[in-house]
Design goal:
mainly alpha, 6% strand, single chain, 204 residues
Amino acid sequence: MSCKKLTKLIVPENIYSAHRPIFIFLFFSGLFPFRVVKKDGKTGLVLTFYGLLSTTFHLIFFGVCYVRTMKLKQSIIGYFLASDITTVGDSFQFVMSLASIFAVYLCCLIKRNRLVELFATITDIDENALKLGIFFGHYRRTMMLIWTNMAIMFIILSIHVTGSYMLLHRASIYPEMSVFVAFFFPFYLMCLSIVFHGCLMRAN
């Protein structure tokens, strides 16, 4: 039984299982309020209560982090270049970042049907091609592409976060977690979105 589950994780059967790794990260980031289900022999995406709850939680959590960071007048850049100009710039940056993140999450909810239709269309094309004896065999390549890009993404983000923390630590500066969240989370969301859409387009 465990071997079959492991095989499914390594050898994808369709476009949905090929994107399973990034689906998991998107779900726990609040950007993917869906669950992959198989009904009447067809696989598809279904909006779930827990997915909506995850999206709502992330919006509230990161909103609180941004507001607290602005209230404390702290920022990663401000620690390195403290001046009136950077203070004003940080305020604008936080406002724009907060608005951008809310826009991203709202877009995920508003345009959710488009994503469902896109995956359904890709599935129909693959199934019709298979009936004609044409097998693209791109599922495994898609999964490997996703794993590779996500590994690169997390390496870059880890270096970025660790490097910033070490520099602050050397200066005996210990910012709150909310500051790190407010500063680095937009980069994480941006990278994750780029990887997802890039790999999705590459899969086509």
